Structure formats: structure tokens, C-alpha cells
Amino acid sequence: MKVSFDISKHPRGFSLAELLAALTIGAMILVAVVGIYSHAERSAGAVFRKLDSSGLPCEILQRIAEDLDRAISAGSNAKITVENKFDSGFPCARLTIRKTIIDKESKEQVFEEIVWQSSIDVDSNSIVLYRSHSGMALEDKLLDEKREEWERSYSFVPICAGVTLFKVQVPMGETLQDSWAQDVLPPGVAVTISFAEPFSTVMGTYDVPDAEKVTRTIAIDRTRKLKFEVVPVAQEGKGNEPVTGINK
Predict the structure, then answer these.
(1) 73 lies in some domain
(2) Does residue 239 form part of some domain?
């Protein structure tokens, strides 16, 4: 008796060529998806770094402005000292805000002294920004609430690391002075900070692109009286007539 088998009723499996083709297509799709995800992640990281690089400097400059506004007031016996130097090639600065009072024995006492100072961190090869608060006015609303008990004995508190440029200058007309030690208050203080990647200059120091520098000019004693003078202005056919409202 002849026996025949009908194989058409049984499903046929994948061949080796079909399996390899499916794996290849799947791998191509996976590589494309991973590439798109990596590109999106890099783009998002760049955006967040850009926001952080502008947000943190602005916050620091705002803190410095608040210290100046609080310590420097009309009629107060205050003094500002500005110093700039290069530490291991990096631009560093020191801003001292000192407010004094006369005690009952007619002696001058330091009521409050705030120091913003930067120095190089050898391990990270970058600048660390510090702030110090001392004097008779021991309460420091900026830092005291966030400091641990063991930290309160340290005068300088690190504010942030990774700084690549920190300058404090005094604007005098069209120029900027790198130092100020006079007894009178400066007209203003220009503070520049940056976290950008530094580059080496021909002088052997480090600098950052101007586009990566964040600068804020803070006016000192903005409640001072402004002086005005009458300036004669020549008008056609009418001779000279005084015009007021010109700031001296």
C-alpha cells in the first residue's frame, strides 16, 4: 500500500536568509532610533547648559548687587575696595564692602564687612568663588540659614566652583579701573563672571570669549543728589537761550 504525506497543511519555518534579513532590518531601525535619541539628548543638554551658564552668573551678580545696596546707603560711613590679579593665569578679584560706625568712646568699629573673593582650585584647575561676612552685624540673611553649625566658624564660604573668569572693576568714564582703595565711594562697580571654557592668550594667561562673559554694572549710592547746570543752546535766529535739565 502506498502512503503519501500532505505537507501543505503544516506551516513552513523561516529560512536562514529570511532570519538574517529580519535581524539586519531590525538592527538598522534600532541604530536609527538610538541615533535620534542621542541627538535629542545632546541638544537638550546643550540647551540646559546654556540656561545654567546664564542663570547662575546672573544669580551671583544679583547677590553681589544686594550686598552693595544693603551696605552702601546714603549717609553711611562705608568704603569699597577693589583688587584684581592673575592666579595661575586665571583672572581673579576681591571686592571688599566695609561699613563702620563710631562707638560711645568715639572709636571707629567695623559694623559689617562683606568680601567676595575668587581663588584658584588646583585640583579642578578652575576658580572657586567665596563670600565672607563679619563684623558686629553677625546675622547674614544670605548664608546663615543654610549653613551647618560646624560651618559657622569659617569666615569664607564657597559659593560656587567651576568659574573661569571673575573680575571686579570700577568704571571711570570710558575706562575701567582694576583697583580702588580710595576713601570715597566709586561711582559704580562692574562685575564680570564666566563659566565658559578658557583659552590661553599670548601673554600666558587665560581668557574666555567676550560673548561668554556676563557683566553687570552696579551703581553706588543711587540716592545721591544729581547736579544740574544751565547750558546755553544756540538756536537759529534767536541767539542763545538757556535750556535746563542737563545732568552734570
Answers:
(1) yes
(2) no
151 close to 118: Cβ distance less than 8 angstroms = no
Q: Considering the domain boundaries, does residue 123 fall inside one?
A: yes
Q: Does residue 160 form part of some domain?
A: yes
**75: containing domain:** 49-219
Q: Give the count of domains, the chain.
A: 1
- Average pLDDT for residues 92-119, to the nearest whole number? 88
- Per-residue pLDDT, 49: 57
Half-sphere exposure of 203 (CA within 13 A, CB side): 8
